[in-house]
Amino acid sequence: EVQLVESGGGLVQAGGSLRLSCAASGFTFDDYDKAWFRQAPGKEREWVSCITRRGGSILYADSVQGRFTASSDSAKKTVYLQMNSLKPEDTAVYYCNSKLFGRDYWGQGTQVTVSS
Predict the structure, then answer these.
(1) Which tens digit of pLDDT belongs to each residue from 7-54?
(2) Considering only CA atoms, which of 10, 3, 14, 12 is closest in space to residue 98?
(3) What is the 3-state secondary structure (H, E, C) of the chain?
(4) Rounded Cα distance, 24 and 5, in Å
């Protein structure tokens, strides 16, 4: 069974940092892209970052470029999202995602709240 479990969210002041983790299981970790999405209240879910299979490329949305850093640890089957210089507009539920055989798998999400 494919499982993605996020952790690391919380409340932080503007300018602060958080590191999110996503522990994956049930599939060959390195063979698939892993992505981070977020959804703010009243808004659609938006893509934040992606680590392509086998760590070939790491991509970022313009809104987080230069502030967020995605990484992965194959031995731990975990992906991370280091978020620095956080802004109130980064407040959202953050989700880990992977697409296997044409189907999207999602974690339960972790809340990030940035106070001004």
Answers:
(1) 999 999 999 999 999 999 988 888 899 999 999 999 999 999 999 987
(2) 3
(3) CCEEEEECCEEEECCCCEEEEEEEECCCHHHCCEEEEEECCCCCCEEEEEECHHHCCEEECCCCCCCEEEEEECCCCEEEEEECCCCHHHCEEEEEEEEECCEEEECCCEEEEEEC
(4) 7
Q: How far apart are CA 21 and CA 9, in angstroms?
A: 9
Taking residues 81-89, what's their average pLDDT?
98
CA-nearest of 99, 97, 96, 93 to 111 is 93
Per-residue pLDDT averaged across 69-94, rounded? Answer: 97
Task: Answer for the pair 18, 78: CB distance below 8 angstroms, yes or no.
Answer: no
The answer to whether residues 90 and 114 touch, using CB atoms and an 8 Å cutoff, is yes
